[in-house]
Amino acid sequence: MIDLVSFYFFIGEARERALGAGAPIGWFEAVLSRAPVRVLVIAIGIAGAVVFARATARLVAGLLPFVALMLLSSVHAQLFGSPWRHMYYTGLCLFGWLLGLMAARVEGRPTDESYAQVGSLALLGAAYLNAGISKLAFGGFEWAWGAPIQAVVVAQDGLVRDSLLSAYRSWIVMSPAVVGFFSLATVIFELAGPLMMLGGRVGVIVALGLLSMHLNIYVLTHILYWQSMVLLVLLGVLPHEERRPSKAAPLPMLASPRRFVGSVVTLSVGALLAIGHQHHRYNAWAAPRAAHTPPVHLAEPAPPPPPPQRSPSQRIGPFSLGDHVTDEWSIEALSPTDGGFTVTLLGPAGRARFEVNCADVEHRSPFDVGAAHIFYSSDVPFPIVQPLGSVLRDRVRTAAAPHDPCQAVNDWTQPAR
Amino acid sequence: MIEASIIRDDHLRFGTLCVLGYVLLSWLVRFDMRLGQQIASLVYPFDTFSMYAGMPGEDRSALLVRDGKGNVRRVTAFRAFSCAEPLTGASAACAGRHGIPYLYEDLVHYIESHAGPGGREVELITRTWSRASP
Fold first, then answer.
1. So what's the pLDDT on residue A133?
2. Would A377 disulfide with which of A165, A258, B1, B86, CB 3.0-4.6 Å?
3. Are A279 and A325 in a shared domain?
4. Mean of the per-residue pLDDT values for chain A?
5. How far apart are CA A50 and CA A41, in angstroms?
6. Residues 102-131 of A with CB under 8 A from B
7. Do B107 and B77 share a structural domain?
8. Residues 6 or more apart whose Cβ sits within 8 Å of residue A16
9. Are B32 and B77 part of one and the same domain?
10. Chain B contacts of A285, Cβ < 8 Å?
């Protein structure tokens, strides 16, 4: 329920930022992210959760919060630009619980929740197994040496000395042996996640290992996975009632060793092929990037060299000095740069500077025209920048058509260089 | 005793199939999203949980603030910014050192949404980490 309510705020914030940045929003996200609609979805989810919690084995009632979480998470991921994995654990444990209820019903024991408990713990363990597999598939065994953890701590924290924990973070980053130990333990405990199903001492050790990992991650990077920590305690650490034997016939797939082994082999082969395919895709994407990554050094960078000065231009492409782009804003300066040009606009709020280029960089702008970026500076607030950027985008698009925008940008800047 | 053991086996078998099914469906497809390549799986709650799984590439920098005395502080330690240079785009200083994309975007949003006059000259910097070659 906490996740359901949290999504109200998270989606609102993500929607506001996506709209502010002029990012394209599909109809699905546009409808579901509206406040009344998300209130309705959350209310249905909460109502289902209450009914689900007040009695045993309420399959349909349990489906309501699950579907609500699925819709809300999908909308949030689209608006934000990435899934929020810490919000996945409640959904996947609920999903496992519902799968267990379905299995018990097929067995003719509609009120039995023992399969539900196992299903929940199985999917929690599977999530950690996936995390461990990911590290080996995308980072290789080298991941366990510790470099990724060092890099994440630096990128998340910056090693700013402003608290008692700063010394611990710095020590970790500068201690290869310690960070190597943490990395190896992380991979081992994650791969062992499904062993929590065994219960007993082994299950508790794995759950406690994963809990320690989360605590350490929080201390090192401020990243808190509280949902999964709570679920690890509830499902993996705290004792549970012994499952009572039943006289009902078990599922054919579970009762017949041959069918069970066949299912395991089929699913395992499928999973290995899928992991191999994603490993190949990742390498195909990552290898060229790694080859072009410039060497970097452990130090605060020296002040950047001043950008090369070029003579301002009277005209570049569809832009001329003094042109009005709106009633109040006009072009004050045009300057060629490496691979593009800058447009400085002067208006009542001051100066707004835009840079048009086709650089191969990760960042995107809401004013991009195909591969041509139109980046903006933050000299004036975005609500003022937005209509100006839109005018510039339309001018570039119209003037470049029907040619490739980057080819056009290159042609426009040739005479100015 | 034997009966209880059989029941326990059935539960473990069910759990094993759940684990394998989840792993298979999570790895089947992975989609690109705005903040990264190949970062989303089929549908909630399936996921490969691959955040930070790759070896460090461009995600090893942190956006920080350095004041005139050389003290380095977090961006969020300041309340108002008036920037003389662009924060985004190819001409931005350290344009290729954005670190973790969502974190960088968050901090740039923080700076942009806290525009205002300030009393101190400071510098936005990226602190970058590299491994020594073996």
1. 94
2. B86
3. no
4. 82
5. 14
6. 103, 114-115, 118-119, 121-123, 125-131
7. yes
8. none
9. no
10. 37-38
